[in-house]
Design goal:
Elements lengths: L3 E2 L2 H21 L5 E7 L3 H17 L2 E7 L5 H13 L5 E4 L9 H7 L11 H9 L11 H12 L8 E5 L6 H8 L7 E5 L6 H6 L3 E4 L17 E4 L3 E4 L6 E4 L12 E2 L6 H23 L3
Parallel strand pairs: 1-11, 2-3, 2-4, 5-6, 5-7, 7-8, 8-11
Antiparallel strand pairs: 9-10
The chain binds 5,10-Methenyltetrahydrofolate.
The site of 5,10-Methenyltetrahydrofolate has 18 residues, from helix 2, strand 4 and helix 9.
Length: 297
């Protein structure tokens, strides 16, 4: 038996086709959605991610506003760039690409973002609304990876109400907000949020009907940790040098043998990554729709 594929590439393509129609409808009403990205420094992985985001935007008719600062930019430079993105009417939503260079206060940067333009859903106001349970079409954005995971499961018919979801990792962009989202009314999962100080990960993971691994430890999750038939989502990415080719290879948190036990498995690449990007574009389009709704008629 081999797990069925949670195909993020195909699902993201379907979401982008739906978004294109919403973008066309906005353009008719005179609103052009635009995604801004603020990237500090020259980390090649971050550059590749940002380029991918702008590629997605061009596919759906969303404009791109790209701001790149050198690695030696000061915190004041970053704050000033954020203020300009807040003020730029062409930018309906934007992200500050993380991580910021060593020593820079990422939380201060996130707090400076206009919450109505927060395409990552990581501003404290929007994280607070996630806790309060305020969201929906015309209210506030959800963090992209958690929303992408829920959407990926939903569109493959994997039900969450009453299920036990084990999340590995408590990071700001995935684990922490995913736990909050999954336990909300309407999604109704029971969540175990495990992390590097959890004593016996294998025992925790064995309880999961759904397992989400977002820790960045290559092939951490073993086949004998998985309840047969469980849905397994591989979020982590680590660049590992392949000993045969000598080249860096993207390696997920899930051991490949898990495919023999799981009922569903998200490939990596091609799973959660493309969903994160599609939900980012969705947040930008939704921000533009909120602008339209707020416009005096
Ligand atoms: N403010 C902020 N928001 C983010 O959403 C954010 C961030 N900072 N910093 C870095 C992480 C990482 N991240 C990825 C998104 C998509 C893929 C993705 O689509 N990956 C492809 C493979 C790409 C490749 O081959 O290099 C895939 O999974 O198929 C990867 C990584 C968003 N992040």
């Amino acid at each position: 038996m081999s797990a069925a594929r949670l195909d993020g590439t195909a699902t993201a393509a379907a979401i982008k086709a739906e978004l294109r129609e919403r973008v066309d409808a906005l353009r008719i009403r005179g609103i052009v959605p635009g995604l801004g990205t603020l990237l500090v420094g020259d980390d090649p992985a971050s550059h590749a991610y940002v380029a991918g985001k702008h590629r997605d935007c061009s596919e759906v008719g969303v404009e791109s506003i790209r701001v790149d600062l050198p690695g030696d930019a000061s915190e004041a430079d970053v704050m000033a760039a954020i203020d300009r993105l807040n003020a730029d009417p062409a930018v309906t939503g934007y992200i500050v690409q993380l991580p910021l260079p060593q020593g820079m206060d990422a939380n201060a940067a996130l707090e400076r973002i206009d919450p109505s333009k927060d395409a990552d859903g990581l501003h404290p106001t929007n994280l607070g609304r996630l806790v309060l349970g305020v969201d929906g079409e015309l209210t506030s954005p959800l963090p992209c990876t958690p929303a992408g995971i829920v959407e990926l499961l939903h569109r493959h018919g994997v039900e969450l109400p009453g299920k036990h979801v084990v999340v590995l990792g408590r990071g700001l962009t995935v684990g922490r907000p995913l736990g909050l989202l999954l336990t909300r009314k309407g999604i109704d999962a029971t969540v175990t949020l495990a992390h590097s100080r959890t004593p016996d990960l294998a025992t925790e993971v064995r309880r999961g009907d759904v397992v989400v691994a977002a820790v960045g430890v290559p092939h951490l999750v073993q086949a004998d940790w998985i309840k047969p038939g469980a849905a397994v989502l591989d979020v982590g990415v680590t660049r590992v040098i392949d000993h045969e080719t000598g080249k860096a290879k993207l390696t997920g948190d899930i051991d490949p043998a898990v495919a023999e036990v799981a009922g569903w498995l998200s490939p990596n690449p091609g799973g959660v990554g493309p969903m994160t990007r599609a939900l980012l574009v969705a947040n930008v389009v939704q921000a533009a729709e909120r602008q339209l709704a707020a416009r005096p008629s």
